[in-house]
Amino acid sequence: MIKHLTIYPAKILAGILAGFLSLFVENLLPLFITVTVFELVDFVTGVIKSAVVAKRTKQRFAFESVKAWRTIYKFVFILIGIVLAEMLDQTVANESRLRFANYFTAFCCGVEFWSFLENAAVISDHPLFRWLRRFMKFKLEDEIGMTFEDAKKDEANEETKH
User: Fold this and answer.
1) Which of 33, 61, 85, 162 could form a Cys-Cys staple with 54, CB 3.0–4.6 A?
2) DSSP single-letter state for residue 92
3) CA-to-CA distance for 74 and 158, rounded, in angstroms?
4) Separation of alpha carbons 82 and 76, rounded Å
5) Residue 156: partners with Cβ closer than 8 Å, 6 or more residues away
């Protein structure tokens, strides 16, 4: 019976790493839950938006696993980012807590909230959501001093350099 219980070194290492990280993440559970809810809402509304757009354009809706995997990668990187921000806060700013993990989580949730508003505007085609999307875009462009079109051009230029 024991012969069939093969323990791989990777599993042992993953268990040790998970136990070590649990020391850091005990107080991060509310942040993990919050970001999980925002990611799930964005994912579900994104899928619904894709189906609505396909129906409006009389195309066949297809669930793309590539987009799902991107969401999973993004979610994992956000969770890692929360842990890293907390580690940075505990080690560098231990005298006066700066709450890096909270700010990082708030930023990520803000981006997902923006995406939710865009999805809701497309799904419902309600004037309230369309107005909110335009208002937020105007305010953000005003704050950063550039338009989204300029930012996309800059991003495309950076990608062509690499």
Assistant:
1) 61
2) T
3) 21
4) 10
5) none
- Cα–Cα distance measured from residue 101 to residue 88, given in angstroms and rounded to the nearest whole number: 9
Q: What is the pLDDT of residues 84-98, one digit of tens each?
A: 898 888 888 767 778
Over residues 93-117, the mean pLDDT reads 87
Residue 60 is classified by DSSP as -
50 C-beta neighbours (distance < 10 Å), count: 18
Q: What does the block give as tokens for 70?
A: 């991107």
- The span from the CA of 80 to the CA of 113, in Å, is 20
Q: What is the pLDDT of residues 114-131, one digit of tens each?
A: 889 889 888 988 888 888
Q: At what angle do helices 148-161 and 127-144 cross, to 10 degrees?
A: 60
Instruction: Say what the pLDDT of residue 16 is.
Output: 79
Residue type, 74: K
